[in-house]
Fold 7-carboxy-7-deazaguanine synthase.
Amino acid sequence: MADATLKLACLNGQAEIFHSIQGEGVSTGCPSVFVRASLCNLHCIWCDTDYTWNWEGTPWQHENDAYPNYRKFKREEYLTELPVEDVAAIVAGYPCQRVILTGGEPLLQDQAWQALMQRLLAENPAYYFEVETNGTQLPSEGFDQLVHQYNVSAKLANSGNAKELRRRGEAMRFFARSNKAWFKFVIASEDDLAEVEELIAEYALPTDRILLMPEGRSEEALQQRRLWLADLCRGRNYRFSDRLHIQLWGAKRGV
Ligand SMILES: Nc1nc2[nH]cc(C(=O)O)c2c(=O)[nH]1
Ligand code: SF4
Ligand SMILES: [Mg+2]
């Protein structure tokens, strides 16, 4: 695995690796280093990292198509391939051992992440790895042994993906059984709750590890949804997740 490389999101020639505060899910507030993979097997219409997959020449639709200046992305500008040793050196340069593997869909690069995690753990066994995944990809055994936490954001109909793409039984059954998995659903309207409950029933998801998070790429959009969603969480006994990084820094990359 010595020559493993990671395909990462790229802006102005720099791989998207940054030190911030976890803004979503059960570890919200924890200082964390984020490593953002390029490539995704889904194409959510409200995706806030569309520069990891919405390439020129692809047919995918995005809510941003409504903006006259929105353009699909040039893959060669927005994807960079970096040796795992280089990624490890950048991550190890931050004084922080919580590392979030995100994307895009990080599990499309299972083997290379294993090499990265092994390298970091060899330097410091205190590393703690969280994975932000869309829940469609089955992790390998080797990957699973190295990971501490899965933040599984299974996509609902509101994402605009065909059901056969976004709902993969084998992967969901794996995460449902894993005691490292938390389930974070992106909620756009109250109607989405029926689908969440269908998923909980179908896969026997642990109800004490479910979070509902408002959909929104701006503070204004989040503000419109967080009050009714918080009420709904209280009523049905689910955890609420905000998007703290948007509240703090807005719709910016690298924070
Ligand atoms: N601060 C911060 N928290 C996050 N939690 C999940 C993120 C993601 O994009 O996967 C994210 C992100 O991009 N920034
Ligand atoms: S699964 Fe995540 S990265 Fe992929 S399109 Fe949806 S929101 Fe974006
Ligand atoms: Mg994000």
